[in-house]
Amino acid sequence: MNNTITLAMIVKNEAANLAACLESAKDQVDEVVIVDTGSTDNTLEIAGRYTDKIYTYPWQGDFSAARNYALARSSGQWILSLDADERLFCEPGQLRKTVEKDEQIEAYLLPLDYPVNESTGEYNRFMVLRLFKNTKDHYFAGRIHEQVIIHKNEAVGFAEDIIIKHQTVSQKERNRKRGRNLKALKEACAADPQNFFLQYYLGVEWLGLGKPARAQPYLESAYRNLTDNHLHFRMPALRYLSTCLNALGKFDEAICLGQEAALRYPDYTDIYYLTGIALEEKAEYKLAVKWFEEAVKCGVPPVLYTHMQGAGSFLAYFHMGYCWENMGRPDIAKACYEQALDANNRYYYPVTSLFLLMLAHHGPRSAFAYFEKKGYLSDSPLALCIAELFFTYGYPGLAKKCLTGSEVSRHVTDEILYHLGRYRIYAGDFQEGLISLERIPPDSQFSNMAVTHRSMALLLTGCVKECRNLALAMWKNKQLRPTARALLRICRFMLQNGVTASGRQGSQEEMVQCFLDLLNLCHHYLPDRPGDEVKNLKQVTSILERILSTSSKGIQKLDRFYQDKVNLVEELFKYKFGAGGVGV
């Protein structure tokens, strides 16, 4: 068979990721070769379900050596190289079609999507050389951040429809890998100080660890010394350098860099976006808008340019909206925020801005009508976001309405039940609220939070003994024990007319926070029906304030609590009558 393809991988302790990776690629390749460098979990067992070509290689601190060992055991005419925490996405047979379409091409750069924020769909896209002919001229070089050596640039093609997606990595694991990489990169740079690829990677690692000051000189050196023959390194060096300068507050330098780069790379979306950010930070809003507009005009940049998804669409629109607000044009800002949501309805930040605009200028009910008319309440994640904003700003009844639309109610999840239940309770609909919360199964991630709101509903309806019984049941759950202790003290206070047993109260800091959290829930109560007040609300609130006032820590926290409430009102007042007060 011509153009056979081998998936060649090196792995170590990848039991959590390996199966998903192999599942994504198994139907696209003819052979799977896995080299294990010292796993102590069941990685080898999982690998054995997909291939019998499994080898062990003693780890020597050299990634290229391990990968070249895998190449030597691969019989395919082409090599696909993946890491275990990556997934392959393409149409059936697409890999084979790609390697067969041009005999002059010896290697392909593939897009690698690295998630920035999975919940909002933000990711960075890089072009990486992962598909290449299996010949003696093609091999890996570099002990760390190894690269495939291809001697003829004209023999490298692009395959944009074969996408590799990196899985989200926990912060702890990411930092562990960065620490390991830094050590190896420092050693490699010491041995080869003029290797600007290594300097690029050093800058990336430092930036990833939140150390932009350490990252800047390496990224600057990489950008200034790498040529356009290595655009897939030079462009990310440029983008990360701009990010560094912004992070360090060196906005003038970032703007100068952006102006210089825009002349040389006029179709590079990300540099317009990042320069716009620098101008925005300097309150040069009019100029910032022009740069964001250029980013939108560019859209998706040329394939070799590393790109942050959204820089030419929803991210740029959102920041344009912010700038227009600060220039006193909330009408234009509103349109920009809407464009941002239209481009990506998983990017929720414009929702908060739209909410504040509508609330400040038209009031809560008109704001609700606006979101409903726009269709935002038909999308469950957006509806949840909008509902929480209404609840936070003191409108539990409208929060409840956000989650009772036909589309949302047809796909009821534990999350929706939880939020709907608590909104109903604080809108005065106790019975329906309790029904919603009681539908949440005990093993749900929302179960513990739900039981706290159930207890508050019982307190606010005067069912003190029932609340006490529920608190005793909560006591059995170690995570709920501090809240249970606080509830039991409130119940004793109410049942004994203000006389409380001393007993064990737990740490002062922990208990003060529990009482404060319960007080905050009381302040969310606003019944739908005028005059429909709960007689116990004042009593429960008074008890909580009295308990908090028995310690200096409690008094400090209580004072801060009410100051925050005042600040929230002032913020909305300023929002309405400040820079954005022209009208929408």
TrEMBL record:
Family annotation (Pfam families): Glycos_transf_2, TPR_16, TPR_8
Organism field: Desulforamulus putei DSM 12395
Protein name: TPR repeat-containing protein
Record-linked SUPFAM superfamilies: Nucleotide-diphospho-sugar transferases, TPR-like
InterPro entries on file: Glyco_trans_2-like, Nucleotide-diphossugar_trans, TPR-like_helical_dom_sf, TPR_rpt
UniProt superkingdom: Bacteria
Ranges for domain Glycosyltransferase 2-like: 8-126
Family annotation (PANTHER family): GLYCOSYLTRANSFERASE (PTHR43630:SF2), POLY-BETA-1,6-N-ACETYL-D-GLUCOSAMINE SYNTHASE (PTHR43630)
